[in-house]
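note to self: dont lose this again. the chain is below, predicted strucutre after it. 215 aa total, dont forget to put it in the shared folder this time
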Amino acid sequence: GSLERRRCLYLHTGRAFCQMVEVLLAVLILVCSSVSCGSAGGYTGLPSLGGIYYYQYGGAYSGFGGAEGERAQQLDQRFYLLKLPIARAAMVVGGCLLVFPCVLILVSVLQVPWHFPVWLLIECTLYIVIAVSTVPALYYFLHSLLSVYNSSVCKEREQLYQSKGYQGFWCSLHGAEIAAGLLGCMAAMAYLLSAGLAVRDYRTVHEQKQKPLQL
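---
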């Protein structure tokens, strides 16, 4: 009926498009945060794994042995534990950012803003609060990661792996962490745009609901 058509039409609006983009950005933030966390497995004799791992890290490399192997494992585990709270916090934030637009899409599909236009103003306020909160959250995320990379654990781990010819264990932000920061900035801009669209839709709904009274 007309109600079903109206619900489907919402998914073709600019506000729905922004909310779907927000869902995608939240999923990507979750993925990048999980990559940043890494593995808790610690050092493994990579040559013994064979195949792609053996050739990626150099077929001629004989691996750590004895006390060096134990020290590499300890440093890997300590480094993982240092990054774990940051990655978990980022994943929790990403999960919340994923649920939020999904709830708003469902609410709009159920025509709640049409029956209660004030909901759009509440939605606008929530978007602005989240967008503003994203700035200190990103600062905390990047600052905490840099603190981990500047720690003595990371520096010793980097030197140990470099002494054996391994590359890729540098004490600096890697691609997934930089991507998470950029995605967070993009999400903040999407929230501000959605806030503006919510105000626009509020005015539209208010005008449409006033038309019968003018007749």
